[in-house]
Design a protein that fits this description.
binds magnesium ion, 26 strands, Molybdenum Cofactor Biosythetic Enzyme, Chain A, 422 residues, 6-stranded mixed beta sheet, binds adenosine monophosphate, 8 helices, Molybdopterin biosynthesis moea protein, domain 2
Amino acid sequence: MSACGCDDIGYERGCDNGQKLMPIDEALALLLGNANPITETEKLSLIEAQGRILAEDLSSTIDVPPHNNSSMDGYAVRSTDLVGSSEKLLPISQRIPAGVMGSELKAGTVARIFTGAPIPAGADAVVMQEVCTVVGEGVDSAVKITGPVPAGKNIRNAGEDIRTGGAILKAGIKLKPQGIGLAASVGIGEITVYKRLRVGIFFTGDELREPGETLEAGQIYNSNRHTMRGLLENLNCEIIDLGTVEDTLEATKAAMLKAAEQSDLVVTSGGVSVGEEDYIRIALEEIGQLDMWRINIKPGKPLAFGKVGDTPFLGMPGNPVSVFATFCIFARPFILQKQGASETKANSFMVPAAFEWAKAGKRHEYVRARIENGAIQLFPHQGSGVLTSTSWANGLAIIPADTTIQLEEMIEFIPFSELSVF
Ligand code: AMP
Ligand code: MG
């Protein structure tokens, strides 16, 4: 025990007394160093693969587009028939809708052609219908076209998007609608993805009741369960939800073992401090392995990390805003890496502050904020129990430790969309 009452692991709630807090980058590196990607894969149809992490490099076996084709409704011509700037009357010798291969274009004639239709052999340009005048009807029709028409005009070349053998998507990317569309465009119908990460969750706190139940005096609703479920669903995890667990050492240990047996990762909330009603840390020490740290972050300083058997364990704080923020900053990259994703870092942007931060804090602070009219507004009440702030905000602004902020100073902002908070 240190003079301030911190135990040898170095954490006691509310106590920074002379104890060095672990910098966020160091904590993140420690976490990611333990996030071994899962290796199990499964083959899914493109329709099922949306949002999953690709487990193989994909390349194309065809050219896209597969043939030179028209980018307009109009007339396919031989540009050599239209040299000079005079108007010419050229007979229409064939009609080529999309999906039909025409025949070679006879010299001195044009082909009626539609968007996406293959360019017939011999033709090397398309003149859009809006600048042509059709004369006559049926087999005798012809078009008046004014030259010159440059070769290649209004033609999309075979392979201009993708070449046969070309790489299209790399293993480790998240399959978004546009990536799935790209795979579809080269005819891939099935895709190998990593299996969904099974995340076991439970919540500690005898004061917790489920929404829909009646609260007795002293009780509160279990909001963390629902916030966390949504965050995990957005990351496409398979959730194994053990619900609320009694605040006793035995119940906590039993839940930990049960969750760890069935999951690739266990995440909990609450009970992570060193109060007499906090059993996560002791349980983890008794049945698993604990690396616990005090992180230089606000909200969310207490965060327990360790292992139960081979299953990593992440014990989040109890305060609802701390759960939300630490999930975004720590759990999200950890989960992404375990899922096999190659990119785990959320993009941030420098945006001017529409507020002043006069008093420098000791910890790196993630404040609930929103961009309005191109500047960052702060939610007025930044308490770690004020869940309203997370719903009002559209991102987290970062106030580094020991820093004051002037009005209009550029500061770092991470939009919720970058944090998979949709
Ligand atoms: P603890 O770390 O267990 O002491 O919890 C810290 C604070 O978070 C206390 O005010 C708890 O009542 C609250 N809390 C813990 N778990 C939850 C939960 N699942 N939903 C909402 N609030 C919670
Ligand atoms: Mg508690």
